[in-house]
Design brief:
alpha+beta; five-stranded antiparallel beta sheet; 12 strands; 16% strand
Length: 461
């Protein structure tokens, strides 16, 4: 892994090489195109001048000497070609052995459009030339004036320009590198101090205050790290408390699993036992069989009730339970609840202060909530239950064992079971279902309780 100054060095070398190559290529192609365009313009101008001279002379044979003289002065290759492609005048070589030029690109273009050009290596001189050819008429005959100039001059100019660019870039790059190198050393010191600070945090040591004023960014980083350090110290202090809470939650989870297993196990065991007896003992009297079947039915209903409560709990929690509101007579609803509970609690009295109050509610869900509260009052009190219907409130009071302040704060939590009782069923779903149903209705539940004196549950609607 590279150090900061090494990273800067490598980065600047990469940038230097990239800039040099890019500028070199751009400069080369730009200068090359510029140079070739200039050559082309010069050649066209010279061809135009020569064509005027030839038109004035009216004698094509006198052009051979003229071509030689003009070529030496202009340092250009000049050729005169007739309509058939034969070279009749050439500045750089004897006419003997020169091939027919009718298939040359510049001649073909000049023949078609009057002016042609091509760039290639000359077969005669073995050098790179730019050829320009123009069609002229002399004594009613067609001729082609062709001029060519070397293009290799650009390479010499290019090498000189590249060297100058290289020297300038190198000079400025060295200055920039030295500046950034010293900056990198300072940055390295700042980052080292941050690294030592972070190491202290990871080792759970109390870190010293980090200070940095080199740049605004380092100042902000130091400030944020100091805040992180303080938060981590607070979290370490809270960790023990959190661990204790997790331990308690795990214990409660185990209790929940145990409670669910117990609730299902007992009725299943009873159903299984009575069923096995009915199957194996064929001599049972009809009364005994009916008694056993009654026990099986009772425990099946108990299982069904437990499952219904679990399903209702999930629907309420996920807000998937439909709410069908109607105008409900609260007195009639409570009387029905009491009537159903009388079957199970035959010796108990549930006194109702009869006042007719009508409210908008889901009768089925509200019946479940009120039945839960009344049954809980019956289970934890040996005395009569008092039920009072008021204009804006329903009160259910028992005179039983009561609920401690600690349990009262948590009793509406799902699966919570008070240490002194099981709240309606050992799954700890009773009050959770009650509060969820009332919340659906925008009703409010308040509980007042005194240990060993009793509890009052009030539903405000």
């Amino acid at each position: 892994m590279l150090k900061i100054h090494q990273l800067f060095l490598r980065t600047y070398l990469t940038i230097f090489i990239a800039i040099l190559i890019t500028l070199t290529l751009i400069t080369y192609f730009w200068a090359k195109n510029l140079y070739i365009n200039q050559i082309e313009e010069n050649l066209i101008q010279n061809i135009d001048i020569l064509s005027v001279v030839l038109e004035d002379s009216k004698d094509i044979n006198s052009t051979k000497k003229l071509v030689k003289e003009l070529s030496s002065k202009l340092n250009l290759r000049i050729s005169i070609i007739d309509e058939n492609g034969d070279v009749i005048a050439e500045s750089h070589k004897s006419l003997d052995g020169i091939k027919n030029h009718s298939n040359r690109v510049e001649i073909i273009q000049a023949k078609n459009i009057g002016l042609g050009k091509d760039r290639r290596v000359s077969e005669t001189l073995e050098k790179d030339f730019l050829y320009i050819a123009k069609k002229i008429f002399l004594n009613n005959q067609i001729y082609y004036i062709r001029m060519a100039d070397y293009t290799n001059k650009i390479k010499d100019n290019f090498m000189k320009l590249t060297f100058e660019i290289f020297m300038y870039i190198t000079f400025f790059l060295i200055i920039a590198f030295l500046s950034t190198y010293f900056i990198s050393i300072k940055i390295k010191k700042e980052t080292d101090s941050i690294l030592y600070f972070l190491k202290d945090i990871t080792k759970k040591k109390k870190p010293i205050f980090l200070k940095s004023n080199y740049t605004y960014e380092f100042y902000k980083i130091a400030k944020l790290l100091n805040k992180v350090s303080q938060k981590l110290l607070k979290k370490e202090e809270e960790k023990a408390k959190h661990t204790a809470k997790l331990t308690l939650a795990n214990r409660q989870k185990d209790d929940i699993i145990s409670a669910i297993s117990h609730e299902f196990k007992n009725p299943i065991a009873i159903i299984s036992g009575y069923s096995q007896t009915l199957i194996e003992d064929k001599n049972l009297s009809q009364d005994v069989q009916l008694k056993f079947l009654s026990k099986i039915e009772s425990n099946s209903n108990k299982l069904s009730s437990i499952i219904d409560k679990l399903r209702l709990t999930l629907r309420l929690q996920e807000k998937k339970q439909e709410l069908v509101k109607t105008k409900v007579n609260l007195l009639s609803l409570i009387e029905n609840c009491v009537s159903d509970l009388k079957i199970k609690y035959k010796t108990r009295e549930m006194n109702i202060e009869k006042n007719e109050v009508f409210i908008d509610a889901d009768e089925t869900l509200l019946s479940i909530a009120i039945s839960n509260i009344i049954e809980n009052a019956l289970k934890y009190s040996n005395k009569d239950i008092e039920i009072k219907i008021e204009k804006n409130c329903l009160s259910i009071t028992d005179f039983g064992i009561g609920i401690s302040k600690e349990d009262l704060e948590k009793i509406d939590k799902k699966f919570y079971r008070a240490s002194s009782n099981d709240w309606n069923n050992s799954l700890g779903l009773g009050l959770f279902i009650v509060k969820s149903i009332l919340k659906y209705h925008n009703f409010e539940l308040k509980v007042n309780s005194i240990v060993n004196s009793g509890s009052t549950f009030k539903i405000y609607y």
